[in-house]
Amino acid sequence: MSASYIPYHPEQQQLLPSALQDWLPQGHLAYFINDTVDSLNLSGFHMRYAAGGPRNQPFHPAMMVKVLVYGYATGVFSSRKIARKLHEDVAFRVLAAENFPAHRTIREFRALHLSEFTELFVQVVRLAREMGLVKLGTIAVDGTKIKANASRHKAMSYARMQTTQAALKAQIAALLQKAANTDEAEKNEPDLDIPAELERRQARLAAIEAAKARLEERQRQSDAQRGRSTDDERQPKDKNGKPKGGKPYQRDFGVPASKAQDSFTDPESRIMKRAGGGFDYSYNAQTAVDETAHIIVAAEVVNTGSDVQQLPMVLAAVKIHTGSAAGQVLADAGYRSEAVMAELATTQPDTELVIALGREGKVLVKPRDAKRYPHTVAMAAKFETAKAKLDYRKRKWIAEPPNGWIKNVLGFRQFSLRGLAKAKAEFKLVCLALNLRRMGAMRAS
Length: 445
What we know:
The chain is α/β, with parallel strands linked by helices. It has helices at 29-39, 43-50, 61-73, 79-88, 90-96, 103-112, 114-130, 158-180, 183-186, 194-225, 311-322, 338-347, 374-382, 386-409, 420-444; strands at residues 138-147, 155-157, 261-263, 270-273, 279-290, 296-302, 328-331, 352-355. A hairpin with a 5-residue loop joins β4 and β5.
């Protein structure tokens, strides 16, 4: 006797059209993103198309926003992969409602609306606060390095720029001399397309000179911040221009180190040390996370590896996004700075700072000059109390999980866009998607 199976007829056509919404279970993230985006103000996205004009009929901005946000919330960042998902993934098809924009359309929509996505991040933070998921009692600030969309093989050190620049100038001079030779002399030379060779070398020389100028300008700014001047003759000097003690500077004002590098693919990215060893062209992503539900209330990006000067910028963003300052801020020793603590005491006097002065569990050399370092001495005294130690222990489980989710759950380890401004906007899109994913999970639970 043969077995009896549930009917299976893959060739059978459906007699009535099916509803895509029936293909996803209730409580699916796609539904939450769909409903949330519909509740947000998308006027900024619509403004670009309001003028009309002779162009193809655009896709609806709400649909494009939903597809992009859901893509980032599920770890699909490539416009090509999103376009493929629109055909293969039920959740994407539900959000797109049987629209199939090409990958170029998705890419261009994202690039054209970076400022609008930034504003959308702020709207989601405020929505989370209305839902009671952001209370600003305690927030923790942390930074993480994210790889830039820049090739390590398309970069050059300052020393190599100098040697390559001289070599290219010599080659260009030789080609110009060859072009000036008589026709009789050229007959004995192998065939060579001199104009094409000149153009290629001149373009290469221009790129190197621009990169060299960027490195030198960056070094001049760094030297000026250290109190150096163009006429210091490599000698440390005080504010009055008089020589003071200390080792002489190794290089003249504005001259970069030989190993200083610049990228040709993303000049605004910087070489930064990555976790586990090694170096990559990266950006430093800063997040401020609320204690209540791990919602990211500020997401900023800088192209300096150090966190030490970033706290005022991040806390100012928190105040702008939420309309009020946090009651307490937790930060690790990377943010320790007497000048920063003095600034925040003036700009955000109602916010309690708990900033570590060193690695946890290490014996620290505590500052004793209260006149010179009043805020640092006061912070050291605060960490002698049991309350401050207990408060600071919360920092790890508040600040670090969202960065882990961004890299290990969403899989966002490298920016798709190039340039600091675009990286800032893309990181806000990532944090916007993560916040919605978190809000959806909290709502379901």
